Amino acid sequence: YDDRDGKIWMDGKLVEWRDAKVHVLTHALHYASSVFEGERCYNGKIFKGVEHSQRLRKSAELLDMEVPYTVEQIEEAKYAMLRANGWTDAYVRAVAWRASGEDMGVSAKRNPVRMAIAGWEWGAYYGDAKTKGAKIDIAKWKRPSPETIPVAAKAAGLYMICTMSKHAAEAKGCSDALFMDWRGYVAECTGANIFFAKDGEVHTPLADCFLDGITRRTVIAMLREKGVTVHERRILPEELEGFQQCWLTGTAAEVTPVGQIADYNFEVGALALDTAASYEKLVRA
Ligand code: PMP
């Protein structure tokens, strides 16, 4: 995958895909001093691009790093990368990390922060689950307390247990894993937020210890605009049995209905499908 044609924006300029490399003594590789974004470009326009660039800079700040580019410069860079590859519809991955430098240990203030933006063509994140409903496992790991790690950052360190949990889920034939949080409340999946519906009303976990996704906020606003009641609240795993519909939201996942979480079944119903359709319309508007 490294050795292919294409362009990647790196530290202020477009480089060949196969030349976009870092050194093995990169601080981020050893200590997870890395933040990133996942975005989607539809018909030549990145959906909520500015919000993503702002979040990247915010995530870095939470890790005591400063992205050496402004939001405007990041926006320009993303479109330059897309144009250089000839894409109007693509997934966009921006990443900023502490590089190798004078400091080889945990403390690394003198090492520069570097940044890259790559992209690729990426279809439905959960494959045919968009129509059939995804099958979700329950992760054995928990989302940590905000006193343990900066949970609002989209930071590499928060994804270690995501990869482990997603591998475990896939080994059981599931598409993803649902985390409980450190208190035992329902939290999120490894790369998407979760929503439930019951008797026409929508319930979603309060984003107080996991990523408050841009798609999550978009979907909440969309539903409220339609007059649907949305409860952001603490949800216990025992409640899963009583919900009728469920769906996931995320930039990559978009809105994907869920058919099953562990032994609980959900109908791929009108509210889930309508929300998915409205989101699809909105991102291309
Ligand atoms: N939670 C996690 C852990 C994620 O990786 C993502 C994807 N960025 C989300 C939620 C959804 O966030 P967004 O809607 O901003 O893509």
How would you describe what is shown here?
There is one protein chain. By secondary structure, the protein is α+β, with helices and mostly antiparallel strands. It has 2 domains: 7-120, D-amino Acid Aminotransferase, Chain A, domain 1 (2-Layer Sandwich), CATH 3.30.470; 129-283, D-amino Acid Aminotransferase, subunit A, domain 2 (D-amino Acid Aminotransferase, Chain A, domain 2), CATH 3.20.10. It has helices at 27-31, 49-62, 71-85, 129-132, 160-171, 214-225, 270-283; strands spanning 7-10, 13-16, 34-42, 45-46, 90-98, 113-120, 134-143, 176-181, 186-189, 193-198, 201-205, 230-233, 245-250, 254-261, 264-265. The strands form 2 sheets. Strands 7, 8, 9, 10, 11, 12, 13, 14 and 15 form a 9-stranded mixed sheet that branches. Strand 14 and strand 15 (264-265) form a beta hairpin. Helix 2 packs across helix 3. It is globular, with a radius of gyration of 19 Å. The mean pLDDT is 97. Residues 38, 154, 188, 191-193, 211, 213-216, 249-251 line the site of 4'-deoxy-4'-aminopyridoxal-5'-phosphate (PMP).
